[in-house]
Design a protein that fits this description.
The complex is a heterodimer of chains A (about 230) and B (about 260). Chain A is mainly α. Chain A is built from 8 helices and 2 strands; from the N terminus they run H-H-H-H-H-E-E-H-H-H. In chain B, the strands form 2 sheets. Chain B has a two-stranded antiparallel ribbon with strand order 1-2. In chain B, strands 3-4 form a two-stranded parallel sheet. In chain B, helix 3 packs antiparallel against helix 5 and helix 5 runs antiparallel to helix 6. Classes of the chains: A mainly alpha (about 230), B mainly alpha (about 260).
Amino acid sequence: MPILSSAFSGVRFASPDAADAVDSLRLALLVAYLQSDLYSRALGVAGFVAAPDATVFGTLSTQETNHVASLAALITARLGQVPARPTFDFTAKGALPGFAFAANQYETFRMLAQAFEDLSVRAYKGQLQALVSDKTALNAALAIHAVEARHAAEVRRIRGKKGWITGSSREDLPAFLQPIYAGEELTTQGTVDVAAAVGSFGGAEAASQAFDEPLTTAQVTAIITPFIA
Amino acid sequence: MPDDRITMHRTPHGGLEPSVVHGAPSRRAFLRLVGATGVLAALPGVMVACGSDDVTAPLNGIAGSGSPLLIDFAKGDAAVLQFAHVLEQLEAEFYTRVVDAFAGSNITTAEQGVLAEIRNHEVAHREFLGRLLGAENAPAATPTFRGIDFANRTAVLTAAKELEDLGVAAYNGAVQYLVAPENVLALGKIVSVEARHAATVRDLLNARSADFAPNATDEVFRPAKVAAVIQANLVDKLGFVNAPSTFVQGPQGNG
C-alpha cells in the first residue's frame, strides 16, 4: 500500500487533537476520493446502474467530484500538499469476494454507497473541532458535511431504509462494515439523558436517531485502509 | 382544514404538557400579555370558537405581535445555543401539528410514519438544548403557522422542506460563533440529522430525483438572515443584542 503510507498515514493522522486544518482537509479528501471513485466506476459500466437510480447516482457522482476539487483547492490555499488519488480496491481486500461492478452485483454497490455516505458524515463531523480556528475551512467542511448527510439519507431511502441511523444498526450491510456504525447508539448527549427527555416521543430509538456521532481520524483511516489497493 | 391548536407547551422544567383549549391563549402567553400591556383588552377573537391560528393562538398568531425574545450574544456560546433552541422549538411545534392533523389529512400512512419520526427527532433536539441551557436560560418561543393547511400533504411537505433547508443553513452559519469544542460537536451532531430530514422530505416530494441535494455544498446563513425568515413563524419579537459584527461566508457566499 505505497499510496496510503506516503500520502495518508503516518504521524499527520495519528493525533486528532493536534490535527491542523490541512490534516483535517486531507482526511476529508481521502473520503471524497473513495466516494467519487465508487460512483465513477459504477457509472462507467454501461447499464450497471439501474435506470430508476440513474439520476440519484449521477448527482452523487457529480457532487463527490466537486468535493474532491473543493478540498484540494482548500489544501492548496493553505500551502499543503494535495495527496494523490489512491487506487481503490472495492472488494476491501477480499471482504467482498469478486466484487467488480458486474451485472449481478448491483446491490453490493448500493450497500457500499450507503456505507461510505454514512461513514462520510461521521468523518467530517470528527474534524469540525480541529477546524474552529480556520473559519473558511470550517464552513466548507460544514457545507459538505450536511450534503453528505443528504446523500446518506437518499441512498438509504432508495434501498428501502430509513434516512437516519437507528442505534448502531448497519441494517443489511456485511459485518465487516460495522465499525462505520459503532458508537451511533448514544442516547445521552453530554449530561443530558435524551432518551428520558423525549419519553413517549420515541424514547431511546428517537434519541439515537436524532444525533449523528463523529469518528476520529484513526477510526476513519482504519475503516478505509482495506479499500486502498 | 388549517391547523388551529397549540397542542403542547414546554413547561418551565422543560417537559411537555398539553395546554391550550380552543379559544384561549396558553397560561404562559396569558401571563406574557399581562406583563406586556397590563390589561387584557387587546385580545380580539379570543372567545371565537375553534379556528386557525388567526383566532385561537396567542395574539391571534400574528407574527411579531408578542413580547421581545432577545438573544444576547454577549453570553457567548449560550446565545448560539439559545438561537438553536428557538429553531428547534419551531420545528418541533411544526411537526407536532403535522402529526396531530394526520386523521384528516391526505398524507399516506408510510409518510405519516416518516413524519412522526422526524417529529420525535425535533422534540429530542429541543429537549436536549433546553436542558443543556437550563430552564432559566432557555426562553420559550411561541411558534405560529398561520395559513398552513396541515391536512394538505403538499402544503405540509413544502413547508417542511423549507424549514429543514433553513435549519441546515442556520446551524452551518452559527457554528463559527462557538468557542467550546463540545458545543461545536453538539451542533454538528444535530445538523447532519436535519440534513437527513431535508433530503427525506425532498424525496417524499420528488422521489429518486436530483432534488435531495440541490447543491454540492449546503448553505451557510448568518443568524440575522435566519432570524428574518423565522420571524414569520414566531409570535415573539425575535431580536439580537450584541449581535456579531463579522460573519465568514460559506462556499456559496449567500449568508
